[in-house]
Amino acid sequence: MIKHIVMFKLKAFDTPSAKQAKMQEIKDKLEALKGIIDCLRSIRVDFNVNPEETWDIILTTELDSLEDVQTYATHPAHVAVAKGIIAPVKTDRACVDYTV
């Protein structure tokens, strides 16, 4: 099994509530992919609570193989979230894939 971990740093928002609302939208849309992308075994999105740290959001997914990671990454439903919702507010991204 592969754990696919992604962290996102978001741009500055006008208010903390605007940032929180966008983060919640990202969480809701990503977690909804579980019922849409067959190879996705699990998906979880969490928010950083430590203001001293760089990253805002962490995405943790489990898939059977690196091929499934690619299938997930290129699936139209994932691309819609990544490009339509995350990309406009993302300033940085880090990713690691590892075997468990």
Quick structural gist:
The protein has 100 residues and is of the alpha+beta class.
Text of the CATH class: Alpha Beta
Beta-strand residue fraction: 25-35%
The average pLDDT is 97
Question: By helix and strand content, what is the structural category?
Answer: alpha+beta
Name the shape in a single word. globular
The description of the largest β-sheet is:
4 strands, antiparallel
List segments where confidence is low: pLDDT < 50 over at least 5 consecutive residues: none
Walk me through what this model shows.
- With 100 residues, the protein is α+β, with helices and mostly antiparallel strands.
- It has one domain (2-99): Alpha-Beta Plaits (2-Layer Sandwich), CATH 3.30.70.
- The chain has 3 helices and 4 strands, in the order βαββααβ.
- The protein has helices at residues 16-31, 66-74, 76-86, and strands at residues 2-10, 42-47, 57-63, 90-99.
- The protein has a 4-stranded antiparallel beta sheet.
- α1 runs antiparallel to α3 (76-86).
Which structural traits does this protein have?
100 residues, alpha+beta, 32% strand, globular, Alpha-Beta Plaits, 4 strands
List the helices and strands and how they pair.
Layout: E1 2-10, H1 16-31, E2 42-47, E3 57-63, H2 66-74, H3 76-86, E4 90-99
Antiparallel strand pairs: 1-3, 1-4, 2-3
Helix pairs in contact: 1-3
